[in-house]
Amino acid sequence: EYARAQRKFIELAGLPESEYASENKLWLAKTHLQLRNFDEGLKLIEEVKTEAQQKEDTELYSSASITKIGFLVYREEYTNAINECQNFLKSLDDDEMTALVWYQMGKIYLKQGDNENALKAFSSVLDFSPTFDVEFESKLEHALLLKDMGKLDEGEEEINDLLNSGKFKNETGQLMYELGNIHYEK
């Protein structure tokens, strides 16, 4: 129902200025992106980011940045997505969100085939306060990447650390599977 939603957001944009004008503009940008009107959507996102910075609205700025990063990844513009992530990191003061952005950067670097930067990004997650899931996924991705790069002993050691920590008890099956893959390659 993006076309109908877009019409409503356009109607709302025509009303006198309100406290929700920037948020409305962000949703209008999202509908433009969904309806394949990329230029207009990106232009509106940049406007929202500028307005959010002026108003010091970190939540709106975060939403706009995340939307743009997601769009760039969808378009497989990985270099631009990395640049956008790095710009977003400069404005963040939330350790949990910062950890998530570093994790996503690691995933983007993997899509580019840039294993060294992916390793650094997954390691950087732990410098902040990741959620339980982001911490586990980044540690696992780091270990699997080491394995893929031929550093089997280091990958095995990291997976054993995850197994022995007790913190990730519910993930034992997946960890044992990956440990088995490492032993098979050895």
* H/E element sequence: HHHHHHHHHH
N-end to C-end Cα span? 52 Å
Largest sheet: none
Q: What share of residues is helical?
A: over 70%
- Overall shape: it is elongated
Which stretches of 5+ consecutive residues score pLDDT under 50?
none
What structural class do helix, strand and pairing data support? mainly alpha
Strand content: under 5%
Give the helix tally: 10
* Average pLDDT: 93
Using the CA coordinates, give the radius of gyration: 20 Å
How many strand segments?
0
Description of the structure:
The protein is mainly alpha-helical and about 190 residues long. It has 10 helices and no strands. It has helices at about 1-15, 20-35, 40-55, 60-75, 80-90, 95-110, 115-125, 130-150, 150-165, 170-185. Helix 1 (about 1-15) runs antiparallel to helix 2 (about 20-35) and helix 6 (about 95-110) runs antiparallel to helix 7. The radius of gyration is 20 Å and the shape is elongated. The mean pLDDT is about 95.
Could you list some keywords that capture this structure?
single chain, 186 residues, mainly alpha, 80% helix
Give a brief rundown of this model.
The protein is mainly alpha-helical. It has helices at 2-13, 21-34, 38-55, 58-74, 78-91, 95-112, 115-125, 132-148, 152-165, 172-185. Helix 4 runs antiparallel to helix 5, helix 6 runs parallel beside helix 8 (132-148) and helix 8 packs antiparallel against helix 9 (152-165).
